[in-house]
Amino acid sequence: MVTVNSKQNPSSERLNIVVLVKPVPDPKEPPKFKPDGTLDRLSMKLVMNPYDKYAVEAALQLREALGGIVIGVSMAPPHAIDALREALAMGVDEFILLSDPRLAGSDTLATSYALSMVVKKLWSKLGKVDLVLCGVESSDSNTAHIGPEVAEWLGLPSVSYVDKILEVSGGYVKVKKLIEGGYMVIRVKMPAVLTIAGTSYTPRIPTLRDVITARRKQITTLNADDVSIDTSKVGLLGSPTRVIKMWAAEIKRRGKIFTDTDIDRLIDNFLAELRKDGVKLK
Amino acid sequence: MIKPDYEFAKRSLVKLLLEVDIVLIYLNTTWLLLLKWNLLIEVFCMPVDFAITKEQEELKAVVREFSEKYIAPRVVEFEEKQMIPPEIIREMARLGLFGVVIPDKYDGLGLDPITAGLVLEEIVRGDPECSLAVTFLVHTSWGYIACKYGSEEFREDVIRKAARGDLWIGIATTEPGAGSDLTGISTIARREGNEYVINGEKAYISGVREAREKGTWFKEGGGHVTLTYTDKSKGHRGMTFFFIPLTHPKITTRLEKEIGRKGWSFGSFTLNDVRIPETYRIGDEGRGFYIAMEGFDHARAYIALTCAVAAKRAIEIAIDYIKQRRAFGQPIAKFQGVQFQLATNWSRLEAAHALAYKALWALKMEQEGKIGRFEVTKIVASAKLFAVETAKMALDDAMRWMGAFGYTEENPVALAWKAVKSYDWAEGSSDIMRLIVARELLGREYIK
Ligand SMILES: Cc1cc2nc3c(=O)[nH]c(=O)nc-3n(C[C@H](O)[C@H](O)[C@H](O)COP(=O)(O)OP(=O)(O)OC[C@H]3O[C@@H](n4cnc5c(N)ncnc54)[C@H](O)[C@@H]3O)c2cc1C
Questions:
Q1: Which of A167, A130, A138, A150 is CA-nearest to residue A17?
Q2: Which of A146, A250, A268, B240 is 20 to 30 A distant from B324 in Cα terms?
């Protein structure tokens, strides 16, 4: 559970939290590919990126503990709107969909720029944004770029692979971050961007009533001009990276177990096998 | 200036077009002739549509997630411990699953029987052993009936709790001496002022333990919509329905051991001078038999769906098995004898599945006043009869494909088979379904 220390934080933070959510092709369905090897997103059913559910859950738990508002933000084509209702059903207060044909083909740099512009717009509308949360990565491209890049565009600190938000007090947020083979506890000044790992949060299943109510909620759709995006920085032309080809990696490694009671013979057998495979040994 | 009322004009035109066969319209300089409006509707509107709405899809998705994560991994436990883990029931309550068809006014969701069926389907896919299906479908059908015919005080008091999942509603018509022939019951309700005093015994009743024990599965326990005689001399016209809370101190219960669907209890209860307020009467005195028939139709339609889906799910599990298990140098699935059985059974189950939705559709049409009581009963009886028989055949074959493993207690196909078998009788036997269909086809004079 999140703790709040209101003595250190007399302004009694009601948090304004933005959660970035991406609609992705349903990972439970067999993927469909375009000739260049990229996913054919148009012909697949879209759902909320499973990693983003953890971020939504983290945001909702913060709101429940401290009060405030959670706003979902997504950049996607208009038909993705149904996939975003799940976030509303879970309890997100409001949702903004940034949708514009000029954004099509954006790479992670262009996407993070566009998303940061929506956050800026919300910032000026709400007076402040305390936290921007997102999933560690998306299940359809797995770059894990967006969170840290959004932080760069906004000039904010960021922590990725957050296992758990531990405490919010005095304008700081204390988080437990996953690192290889362990954890790291970090205190970071807000506003900040956090990418949430799927380790400590269990996304809630919305009730049937929440689903029905979410269906009737309005999702605000904005275009590039609404959030003052410089369109030369987005879309295919504004993107410095380009996918040229995608293919499934061939795993050539094969395991072989050598057993022998005599250690010298075992090593000889092993070396002989390596030589047979063309490995040059001294 | 007077503004033309386009809305009114449109409505009037539509009304006119729906009422007459031929319409002549003079438009600019041309006469337009519209013929046989009904024919046009048939040509341009799709009369049958298997698509579901976005909302229904989303509701299904939520229940699917719950079913996959929380139900499916624990089904074997239902059988072993002979109970549904109470936390599963509480989570179902939180999701709103006990108020699906109860009107919004009483804290339900006010959804139609088709949507309730879509949701039930996801529960069954997680639990082909069917204990949860029983829990859901009995409560959904008889909760709906109790709400429809219950008094306003009753709705405010009991139905509201039922919709929130704080109280379970079951059905009690069967007695030690009467099952198919309801007129043979001997439970009597006697009026005393603003109360009724009820004496009798009900047998083979689902959910006796769960309704009796307050706080374990449901905060307030539960009760059964119970059939009695208020005037035996009038035969089926002297029957009356009451809601009897099984937590009543003058009730004693006894449990039976079921063959299948062991997660949900099954037993009898004895009423010994049980006093209940008049407000717990469901419908008027003398209407009990008719209300029972309506309630059975709801339960039977959901049962038809449950049997079709449980069998389909079991077949999917069997498919995984026969692809892996080998005999005579190849997977069992490569024997054409097995393949043809598979295809035949699956096709029959598809038909049973579709007919179950037709039954739910008939209930929805009845609610909208578009189709009569007897027509509904006929469609529903066919659906239950066909689904039970078809599912039993399919599961019997699937168990055989699995060899001796198919005959072990925890085999999911065997669990589904045992559950489906219960519907040879529960909520009306297959023979009674045949009787209903024959009666509706031949006329009452051919049936005793
Ligand atoms: C698992 C399970 C759960 C149940 N849960 C409930 C419950 O919650 N509430 C409840 O009230 N009841 C419940 N029942 C009881 C069920 O409704 C009865 O079993 C059913 O109505 C049949 O009654 P019976 O068992 O007395 O059989 P009987 O009426 O004695 O019938 C015996 C056999 O004769 C056949 N038969 C009877 N009449 C005719 C006829 N006219 N023509 C041809 N054949 C006929 C029947 O089909 C049956 O095969 C449950 C039963 C089971 C197995």
A1: A130
A2: A250
B181 burial class (0-12, 13-18, 19+ CB within 10 angstroms)?
exposed
User: B3 is written with which tokens?
Assistant: 């503004």
**Which fold is adopted by the domain B54-168?**
Butyryl-Coa Dehydrogenase, subunit A; domain 1 (1.10.540)
**Closest Cα in chain B, distance from residue A150 (Å):** 31
Chain A contact present for B3, CB below 8 A: no
For residue B317, give the amino acid letter.
I
Q: How far apart are CA B339 and CA B398, in angstroms?
A: 11
pLDDT (0 to 100) of residue A277: 84
Write down the domain spans for chain B: 6-44+296-446, 54-168, 169-289
Say how far apart CA B434 and CA B208 lie, in whole Å. Answer: 29
Task: Report the nearest atom of ligand 1 relative to the CA of B171.
Answer: 9
Q: What is the pTM of this model?
A: 0.87
Per-residue pLDDT tens over the stretch A160-195:
999 999 999 999 999 999 999 899 999 999 999 999
CA distance B430 to B381: 9
Nearest CA in chain A to B108: A209
Report which of residues B273 and A41 the model is more confident about. Answer: B273
For residue range A194-204, what is the model confidence (pLDDT) as tens digits? Answer: 999 988 999 99
Give the architecture-level CATH label for domain B6-44+296-446: Up-down Bundle (1.20)
Residues of chain B positioned with their CB less than 8 A from the CB of A27: none
Q: Using a 6 Å cutoff on CB, does residue B204 contact ligand 1? A: yes
pLDDT at A10 over 70: no
Question: CATH fold of A3-238, please?
Answer: Rossmann fold (3.40.50)
